[in-house]
Every structure is written in C-alpha cells, then in structure tokens.
Amino acid sequence: MALNQRQAIAQTKLMLGWRQQEAERLDDLYAYLHGRQRHMWVSSSVPEEVKRMARMARVNVLGLVVSTLAQSCYVDGYRSPTAEQEAPAWTVWQKNRMDARQIGVHRAMFGYGAAYTTVMPGAPVAVITGHSPRNMTTVYGEDEDWPVWALEKRRTETVGNRQLYRLYDDQAIYYMSANDGGDVDYVETREHGLGKVPVVHFLNQVDLDEEVVSEIDPLMVLQDQIEFTTFGLLVVQHYGAFAQKWIAGWLAESEEQYLKATASKVWTFEDPDTKLGQFTPSPLADYIDSRADTFKVLAAIAQLPAHALRGELVNLSAEALAAAEQTERRKVMERQ
Asked: Average of pLDDT values for 148-174?
C-alpha cells in the first residue's frame, strides 16, 4: 500500500538525516576526484606567489586511477556463452544509450564506492538512468539486492530555496520538496506497481562487512603527499635552485642602482670593507626522488603499474610489461 502524505513526509525527513551523515565523506571524495581539495599546508598570510605555487602543485593522480579502471570495464555486449546473438535485454540497453552512459555509472562506482541506476517502466522499453551517490541515498533490509527505501535528489532547478526530491518504495514514487532547514512538503504520488524499489546498486568492492569502499579512500593521504612534495619542489625551485648573491657593507640608494648592480657581470665598490658572495643552490633531486617514491607506493596500493602513473615506459620487454600489468588485470577482472 502506498504511503499517505504524512507518512511520505516523515520518511523523507528520516532519509534526509541519513543523507546528511554521508554528505561530508562524499564531498571530500568529489573534491579529490576533481582536484579541488583544500591546500592544508598554505597559510592565508603567505605571499600571493606562494599561493599560486600551491595551486600549481596540484597533481590530480586519483582521477587517473578511476579513469584507468573505468576504461577497462566497458560492456559491449550481452549474451550467454553459447549464444550467437545478443539477448533481448541488449535492446533495452541500446535504446537507453547505455553504451555511452555506462561510463558515468562506472566512474561513480569507482570514485565513491557505489553508484545507482533506476529502472522505470517506459515506452517502448524500460528507462534506465544512472545516479551518483551524491544524489541518491538508499536503505537496505534483509534483501541485499533491493533497497527498502531510496531518496533521489533531483537535477531539476530548485523552486525558490527548496530542492526537489523523489522518494521510492516498492509501490510508488513520492515527489517532495525540502529546504536546507529540513522542512519537507508533499507534491504528488505516482504509483509504479513494480513490487520492488526500482533502484539497482553497483558496488566497487563486495565483501561481508557491508562497507562501501571507494578506490581512492586509501589513496587520498598519498595524493596529499604528492602535492606537498611538489609544492616544496616549486618553492625551492623558485627561491633556492639558482645561486643567489649577497653583498655585505653596501646598500643601493635607488631601485635603478640596484637593478644596475644585479645586471652587472663585474661589480666594483669603492668601500674596501664591502664583501660579496653567493649562497649554495638548493638541490632539487631529493624532492624529485621523494615524489617518485610516493608514486610507486600509490601505484602498488592501487594495483596499477607504476609506468601508468608516471608515464615511464623505457626498454621494457613483452614479458616485463605483462608482469608489470598482472596485478592490474586481476583487479579489473574482480571489478568486472
């Protein structure tokens, strides 16, 4: 039996509370996936050029980790092992343009640990729509394949300061609106009569602990290390990689005199106590080696060949290349 208005409002409020609990984690994952995470090591009081170097230090490796897996999990047919033709369900897939749209589902699954599709009655075939977990919240009971409830944040423009939602149960879809304060209004009910909540979930890792684990959850700290080392490299490169000269006992009387001195190949001073010298340049090799080691650790944890992240592929035999990619193939097969 479908919910009445009061029940639908109460369930939506409950789901919005659960949604809020996971919003912070999903927002962090979104930021790291798209290279928009906060620079934790830069104070607001540093010079503008240092802030710019911090922005330049952003090396978004985690997006590449997700892309590499998504590109290896492409569905290009649906048939039994002994059949010569695609199964009838393949027509539904094709008419929903899932050849292209499946990529978004796979990327969300790898990036956030889970992704969803809704499968609704339609004409001439069922309608399949992909959803990010940032826009879909589900609750499961004894049946791990089908949720008991699902709440979808609509992509539709908000009405005033209110966001539109769809609440699903096994009988109907309830259209609701809510504001940031949790005030919920009922809009309408549309019965679907499917007997199941028409939401299918895709999990990145399947285990018995019921934990939703993203591919990038264990890699975010390494992403921070790469950016921190790159930031240090840029700062040293800017301020200390080239020999800086110093003069003791002399002070330029004007900017013109200072520029003339810095451009001179031979410097002369009348004061015999004036001393000249230069600082030893700061080496960059240690920063470069440290960053390369972090890339290697990240590649090992992500089960990706190191050359896929660093772009190094020199003098590798076919056997060595196959060995380097063996762990990646095992991981891809598990996900497929």
From this structure: 87
Task: Note the pLDDT tens digit of each residue in 195-225.
Answer: 999 999 999 987 777 788 899 999 999 999 9
Q: Are strands 127-131 and 172-178 parallel, antiparallel or unpaired?
A: unpaired
Residue 197 and residue 4: Cα distance in Å, rounded? Answer: 17
User: Strands, DSSP E only, in the chain?
Assistant: 114-120, 127-131, 136-140, 147-153, 163-168, 172-178, 184-191, 199-203, 245-248, 275-278
Report the percentage of the chain scoring pLDDT > 90: 44
State how far the Cα of 122 lies from the Cα of 97, in Å rounded to an integer.
14
Q: Per-residue pLDDT for 109 more than 70?
A: yes
Here the tokens at position 106 are 């796979």
Give how far the C-alpha of residue 185 lies from the chain's centroid of Cα atoms, to the nearest Å. Answer: 33
Backbone angles phi, psi at 277, to 5 degrees: -170, -175
pLDDT at 259: 67
Instruction: Report whether pLDDT(173) > 60.
Output: yes
CA dist., res. 246 & res. 261, Å (int): 11
Half-sphere exposure of 166 (CA within 13 A, CB side): 19
The reported pLDDT for the residue numbered 7 is 94
Q: Are 163 and 153 in contact (CB under 8 A)?
A: yes
Rounded to whole angstroms, how far apart are CA atoms 107 and 184? 32
